[in-house]
Every structure is written in C-alpha cells, then in structure tokens.
Amino acid sequence: MNLIKHFINGKLDSGNSKKTGKVFNPATGEQSAEVILASKADLNRSVEVAKNAFLEWSVKPPLQRARVLFKFKELIEKNSDELTKIIVSEHGKVYDDAKGSLTRGLEVVEFACGIPHLLKGEFTENVGTDVDSWSMRQPLGVCAGITPFNFPAMVPMWMFPVAIACGNTFILKPSEKDPSCSIKLAELFQEAGLPSGVLNVVNGDKEVVDAIIENKDVAAVSFVGSTPIAKYIYENCAKNEKRVQALGGAKNHCVVMPDCDLDQAVNGLMGAAYGSAGERCMAQSVAVAVGGIGDKLVNALAKKVEVLKVGPGMDRKSEMGPLVTKEHLDKVKSYVDLGVKEGAKLVVDGRNIKLQGYENGYYLGGCLFDHVKENMRIYKEEIFGPVLSVVRAKNFEEALSLVNDHEFGNGVAIFTRDGDTARNFSSKAKIGMVGVNIPIPVPMAFHSFGGWKRSLFGDQHMHGPEGVRFYTKLKTITSRWPSGIRSNPEFIMPTMK
After folding, report:
1. 121 phi/psi in degrees, rounded to 5
2. Span 252-436: which CATH code?
3. Is the pLDDT of residue 496 over 90?
4. What is the pLDDT at residue 482?
5. For the purposes of burial, counting CB atoms within 10 Å of the CB of 480, is it exposed (0-12), middle (13-18) or buried (19 or more)?
6. pLDDT tens digit sequence for 191-238
7. How far apart are CA 444 and CA 446, in angstroms?
8. 46 pLDDT band (50/70/90 cuts)?
C-alpha cells in the first residue's frame, strides 16, 4: 500500500503522527493509498521551517524569484501527463477535464512569472517642499492554503505561486482525499530551484486546520471549500489577527432567455452542470428558463442527459467520471431523493447506473429536475454533484430576482442575443463573476477569481492583481533630506584622506 507523506523542508517527511487516512480510486472503489495525517506539532514544525526560509527568500530580487517560477512552469508542462493521471486516479474526473484544470493552474504560474512588474510601487516627487513620497509592497511572511478535493492542482496553484513570487513562504494543506498531486507539484518546484522550506505540504484534517489558525507565525490564510467552513476559518483567523480570503459555496444560476441560441445554451449547460460530475464551485446547477422557453429547454437537455457517457476518467470516451468518495455519492443521491419528496419533477434519474467491471465505483448518472421551486432544499443548498434543477421564471425581472435573492453569489450566466438584456443583467446581478453566453465565467489568471455574498469571506479575490495585494502589505515612505554640504571641485588625483 502506497504511503503518502508530507513534504517539509525540501524532502518527504513522515512527521510524528500515527494517524492516517484512506485514499481511494473513485473509478473502482478500491483503496489506492494511505495518507499520514499530521499533528499540531508537525504543522508547527513546518511553520518554523517556513519562517526560517523566509529570511533569505523574501530578500531575493523579484527577478530571481521569477526565474525559478519560469523553470517550474517548464517542469509542469514536461510532467503534465503524469500530473493529469494523478488527478484522475484520486479525484475521478475525466482525463481531458483534469488536463484542463491543470492548465488553468499553470496559467497562474505564468502570471506570477511577471512578479517584478507586479510589485512595482509608486513615487511622487515634491509632495511638499523638498519632500518625496513613495510606496512599496513587501511580503507578509509565512502564508497557508487550505484547499478542497475537487481541484487538486488548480486551486493550490491559485495560491502558492503568487504568494511565493511575492517573497512569502507557504504551507499547503491539501484535501486528504486526493493529496498526491500537491506533493508532486512541491517536488517539481524544488527541482526548479526553489530553496528548501519555501513551499511545504502538510497533509491533515481539522486538527491541522485549527493549528494553522492558531499558529501566531502564520500571517495569512487562503481557503476554498464549503460556506460553513469558510465562515469558520474567516471568523477564527480574524480572532487570531490573520489576513484571510475564504471562498465558500455556490449555487450558480444560468438564465436562459427566450431569444437565445438554444443549442448553444443546452451545450453550455451540459458541460457546466455535468462536467467533473458537478463537483465544481463554478458548476451551473440551476437553469432559469424565462418566458415560454422552459419546455423546449427541458426536452433538449433531457435528450442529452440520457445519453451522457459515464465511465472511468482514463477512458477517453467518458464524458463524466465518478464522484470522489462513497460518502459523497450517498450524499448526492440523498439530495435527489429529497427533490422527488419535495415535489420537483425528476425528468432524468441517474441513481441506478451500473457499469460493467466498475460495479464498486462511485458513479451517478446525470440527474435533471424540472419545476423546482425557491423553497425547496435542492434549490437553496449546494449539492456538488451532477444534478441540474430547472426553475421557471415569467420574465427577466423575476429571473434577476431569483439570482439576487439567493444567499450565494459566486457565478452566474445568461444566454441571450439581446445586448441590452445582457448589459442590464451584467450590471444588476449581485454576483462576483458573470458570463454572457459563457456558461462557466472563470476569469483568466491575470484577472481575479471570487464571488459575493456568502460565497466569499474576506475582501480580496484569488490570483490576479488582488492575489498580489493579498500576499503583500503596503508600505509608504515620506522623506526629506537636510541641505547637504557641497564642496568645491578638486582637480587632483584622489587619495585616501
């Protein structure tokens, strides 16, 4: 049985904890590895290592740090197939989807390669008589990232490349469900020339999360996960005087207007709702059918959901893989049961899917509900599985109200041919990321990622310019020099005096 260790101070580390967790292959349901779960002492030791590494790394010229990132980028590209297979083996998503998520993480590394430009300050001459003023951004110290199971490469790379490029050191606590990719990324970064101790990976559960929150030497915490945990981390990091960005849950709506290109909308919804088995914080889990387009939309969706190719992630014919664990599969199934009980119409039922040769895998076929109401739990709560709910709205105003009244505000999309409708929606939607005829409006790495309302706790979004601001602190200097003594010129050979 493969034993997954920590990565501390530039090498694999077993720590001093005897506690372990099980890692499964979701496609087969078989245990593939055991992961060592760190103790509080292990976490504190890794912070001490990172604290010591910060002394030298923080004063390296930004260009030198950027050169390490350039090399890291090359190594990710060289090892992309291996990294993709690791993601598939522990998360379950199909190969091309896994490869795509790795690419989106790589784009953040590419962004961070421009850190010398991104760290430039501002200068003003003569803010007062003979007084100059300038600003600079300096690293925070030891930063930490707590990441979810659904994107074992992309979400960690939203965090640590920017943090490290800015001169910080970093502790990454990946999901204990699929930790291997984080370990491999840390090894590649070390190979790229990153000094030991700058990036450390500590596997663990709530004990490690609480240890991160409580450790006085951790200056900032980044988190992606569910809203209850995001709120917990935000509140407790604040109590412990830490800077924090905590991204929570989502219930992303896709507003389908009567004038839209229906084929485009249906294809977009299929990928956005069922890609990665719906285990995305940007999944479009609610389709809002406006006006009289509801029947056409549901009929078109049903035809595609019924023939959705579900199978193991390494099968290139598969369009959707398994869910990550047996527990999560049971949870998503229970939501489907609940939707039926609440009175929604289950148009396509994917609960009874069986795959020959993969009978123990964590598979659920695509599920499609129609006539979902605002008071139903399947509408209000994040399911995080391949379940799409169709809500009917009489007009644009009602659709917009549905979007704005929901507690989550992560992402939203609208499909329409009308520019005025699109502009009005983009302006008035109380949502952090908006797509117009784009089903999954994830910004590129040089912009920033994050939602509104209960989808984000904290003031700054991930990566892009906001990421740089989050991982640095602003210093402003105001300076005046007394009049100097200006000697007359000398025309003799200078000698020591």
Report:
1. -95, -165
2. 3.40.309.10
3. no
4. 84
5. exposed
6. 999 999 999 999 999 999 999 999 999 999 999 999 999 999 999 999
7. 6
8. very high
pTM of the predicted structure, to 2 decimals: 0.95
**What is the structure's pLDDT at 497?**
54
pLDDT tens sequence across 402-451: 999 999 999 999 999 999 999 999 999 999 999 999 999 999 999 999 99
- CA dist 319 and 275 (Å) reads 7
Token pair for residue 373? 């109401």
Q: Give the pLDDT confidence score for residue 495 in this predicted structure.
A: 66
- Paired residues of 434 in beta bridges: 412
Diameter of the chain by CA atoms? 99
Topology of domain 2-248+455-479 in CATH is Aldehyde Dehydrogenase; Chain A, domain 1 (3.40.605)
Contact predicate 411/431, CB 8 Å = yes
Domain ranges of the chain: 2-248+455-479, 252-436
Residue whose entry in the numeric block shows the structure tokens 């209000």: 380
| Sign (positive or negative) of CA dihedral 427, 118, 48, 105 | positive
Residues recognised as catalytic = 281
DSSP-assigned letters across all residues of 157-211: HHHHHHHHHTT-EEEEE--TTS-HHHHHHHHHHHHTTPPTTSEEE---SHHHHHH
Alpha carbons 255 and 266: distance in angstroms, whole number: 11
